């Protein structure tokens, strides 16, 4: 049972990584602070706390958001995925595996936000969303996911260690795995 609400707090239910969490939060509590301080989901990192570094990126309804700028009360009723929820049981998400295989990290502090952002970037690209470097924004076919496209699409996620070359390679490999998975799913549906 959720705690009672007051004029400065609300009882909310957050759906995080497929689990419902009932808690009472001050109306000013950010989603980041609710995740880290109230629910002990510390994979999401607090970097700048100003929405500029991307370390706190999570997925809300499969779209990337910087959780330090989003209020917990605004996330009620939405599907929240943190780094702790992107794997399928013991099987890493293809983007997680690509980051490991290609050393897409150094200190690792920004990596959870990088991975969550990369997962969304791949989905956005597959859906045909253009970026600032997309040459033909009117094309019905997504442009190739070139290193320039990846760098632009991931530009909201900073890496203090400078692992950008490996991050771009990891996103590219994750996109390839995503494309292969989509093809296999389409073939299974047609069979």
UniProtKB/TrEMBL annotation:
Database matches in InterPro entries: 2Fe-2S-bd, 2Fe-2S-bd_dom_sf, 2Fe-2S_ferredoxin-like_sf, 2Fe-2S_ferredoxin-type, 2Fe2S_fd_BS, Aldehyde_Oxdr_Iron-Sulfur, Beta-grasp_dom_sf
Keyword list, A-Z: 2Fe-2S, Iron, Iron-sulfur, Metal-binding, Oxidoreductase
A molecular function (GO) term: metal ion binding
Residue intervals of the 2Fe-2S ferredoxin-type domain: 10-86
A Pfam family annotated for this UniProt entry: Fer2_2
Keyword Metal-binding in annotation: yes
Protein name from the UniProt record: (2Fe-2S)-binding protein
């Amino acid at each position: 049972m959720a705690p009672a609400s007051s004029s400065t707090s609300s009882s909310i239910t957050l759906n995080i990584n497929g689990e419902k969490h009932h808690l009472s939060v001050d109306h000013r509590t950010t989603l980041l602070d609710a995740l880290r301080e109230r629910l002990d989901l510390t994979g999401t990192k607090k970097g700048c706390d100003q929405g500029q570094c991307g370390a706190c990126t999570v997925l809300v309804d499969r779209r990337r958001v910087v959780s330090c700028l989003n209020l917990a009360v605004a996330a009620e009723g939405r599907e929240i995925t943190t780094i702790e929820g992107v794997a399928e049981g013991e099987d890493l998400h293809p983007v997680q595996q690509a980051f490991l295989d290609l050393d897409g990290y150094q200190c690792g502090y920004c990596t959870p936000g990088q991975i969550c952002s990369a997962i969304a970037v791949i989905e956005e690209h597959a859906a045909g969303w253009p970026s600032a470097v997309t040459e033909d924004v009117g094309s019905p076919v997504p442009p190739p996911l070139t290193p320039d496209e990846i760098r632009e699409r991931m530009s909201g996620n900073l890496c203090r260690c400078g692992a950008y070359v490996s991050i771009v390679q990891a996103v590219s490999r994750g996109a390839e795995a995503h494309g292969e998975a989509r093809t296999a799913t389409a073939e299974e549906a047609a069979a």
